[in-house]
Amino acid sequence: RFLIASAAALASGGSVHAADAIVAADPEALSYVRVCDAFGKGYFYIPGTETCLKVGGYLRSDSLFGESPYTGINDGWVPLSRATLRFDAVSDTEYGELHGFMEHRYQVVNGAQTFTLISSYIELGGFRAGFSDSRFDKWLDSAGNIVNDDVIDFSPPRTNQISYVFKAGNGISLLVGAEEGNGSYKTNYAPIPTVPYDEGDWPHPVVGAKIKQDWGGFTIIGGYDAHAETFAGKARLDLVLNKTFSVFAMGGYQS
């Protein structure tokens, strides 16, 4: 009798509250981020815009033991941890591709934390303005895929710059630009042995040319140091041996 009465009570209770039942709203349609493949892999459309964005980066951890290549002093164990973030935004305009890029680096070496802006520039139709590696370095694809390229000082540091690249077709490109410079230069004057580049008002002009073909490529660049009043030039020859191996040779001159 108890079970029957309980069942009846539940049934009657359900009928009493039927009018007060809450109707669940229809689920909203899922809105996925659209893939943007017009500028390469990894891009997606920023919601509500026609701008494509690519977010990337890397993590790095390494350790150095023994003598420092910079000072020759035995530093023992020097651990390094690094996190790098890259943001690359591209959109089409009536003047060509509008490209914005920035790269940030967070690093800890021997417990000392640093934050470094690696690059921050805007490109439009061949023009570039902003902060990045010197064109004297990147125009020749640096020194290849190596971990540490600063033991031998073969290139200026990162700098503010403006430049224009003209693509003539058939793999031929021409470069003209001006750079602020960074760091310091030697004066050979004892009372003031070095002078920072950012104390000067005149930019440093750079010009370059390159050709890229199936067999490889040839690249040249020249720059004039407006403060030190010297000229420097570099040339690089690339040869593709097969689908797996390629070699290059690079040389430079400084007045």
Low confidence ranges: 1-18
Give the % helix.
under 10%
Strand order of the largest sheet: 1-2-3-4-5-6-7-8-9-12-13-14-15
The helix count comes to: 2
Largest sheet: 13 strands, antiparallel
What is the structural class?
mainly beta
- Termini separation: 110 Å
Radius of gyration from the CA trace?
Answer: 30 Å
Residue-averaged pLDDT: 83
Domain count? 2
Shape: globular
Q: What are the secondary-structure elements, in order, as H or E? A: HEEEEEEEHEEEEEEEE
β content, as a range? over 45%
Question: How many β-strand runs?
Answer: 15
Short overview:
The protein has 255 residues and is mainly β. It has two domains: 33-124, Outer membrane efflux proteins (OEP), CATH 2.20.200; 126-255, no CATH class.
Describe the structure.
There is one protein chain. This protein is mainly beta. It has two domains: 33-124, Outer membrane efflux proteins (OEP); 126-255, no CATH class. 8% of the residues lie in helices and 55% in strands. The chain has helices at 2-17, 135-138; strands at residues 35-36, 43-45, 52-67, 74-93, 96-109, 112-124, 127-132, 159-169, 172-179, 184-186, 194-196, 204-213, 216-225, 230-240, 246-254. Strands 1-2-3-4-5-6-7-8-9-12-13-14-15 form a 13-stranded antiparallel sheet, with no helix packed on it. It is globular and about 75 Å long. The termini are far apart. The relative contact order is 0.08. Residues 1-18 have low confidence and may be disordered. Keywords: Cell outer membrane, Ion transport, Membrane, Porin, Signal, Transmembrane, Transmembrane beta strand, Transport. Residues 1-18 form the signal peptide. It is found in: Cell outer membrane.
